Amino acid sequence: MSGYILPIIFIAVFCYSKYKKVNTYDTFVKGAKKSIPLVVDIFPYIATIMIAVALLRASGATNILATIFSPIFNLLGIPKELIELVLLRPFTGSGSYALLDSVFAEYGADSYISRCACVILGCSETIFYVATVYTSQTKVKKLLYAIPIALVASVVGSVIACLICKVI
Amino acid sequence: MNRIWFVMVVLSICLLLFNDPSGMLNTMIDASSGALTLAIELCAVYAVWLGILELVEASGLSEKLAKLLRPLIRWLFKIKDEEAEKMIALNMSGNLLGLGNAATPMGINAMKKLDDKSGVASHAIIMLVVLNSTSIQLLPSTVIGLRAAAGSQSPADIILPTLIATVCTCIVGVSLTKLANFLHDKFKRKKLNKNKT
Q1: Where are the domains of chain A?
Q2: The whole model's pTM is what?
């Protein structure tokens, strides 16, 4: 069902553009042209974040952090197997999907742990990535309380995720 | 961000001194080349979406969408800039469909429109960052795909729990931002009053 949504939207966009007498080919090219400068601009930000995450994982710092945070997560009801996932999720999308895969492999795709991991990933976003990439084209240096709020909201979401998985 | 990055990197390299000092540079270069691969992929994804976006704009569809979402956007962002409204409307729609990568270029455009060049994030920018960090996802397609690939019996049974959790995250994020913006305003006004007297 959901597979039909995008094709239908695209057909609608193309036909409506034609109806409005827009040159679809020229206009599409004009838009696509913007993708290279955009990626060139945001690449350094992506690289810088990914370097920090890779170092963090390679050095074993995530394991140490996981041990430090485990009492807090215990209190919140988040399984300790998922601490690394919750900690890395705000920084990297691809990294957290790789972690999800290893959780599947270790505990089975239908286990409680795996379902929790899925829901946690589904209700959270790569906060630091979003914050750096989105502000990369602006003069904004101080995001004030944006990141802390996003983090708190994600933790609340993760706690709820684990609770729901226990019930359903 | 500067502080967080500094702590992450210095702490990790210090630890690596004990574990694996010769592997440090390789780790960094691997990560960087991973970022390059990702950037090239993103470039392809953005070419498709920016092409569509250009059509959506040229045909006036974006204005229609913005008009539809206007009450919500006005309430969330308290802005009057129509260009920014259009971009935010498209950004929100992309996020709802679970198309984070399609939403990014529109979000960046919206940011540019909202930027007041003062260096400090305005309330609207903070709201946009929080909204994109906690956005509601109607369909967690990537996760379902991975789960099916891992041999799950019913990979889609996480849809409902995810929906509930993602709505909660979004509500918490938006209400905290509203509260913080309100308090921030109050604090600023107090400061101004004090300076006057």
Answers
A1: 34-167
A2: 0.86
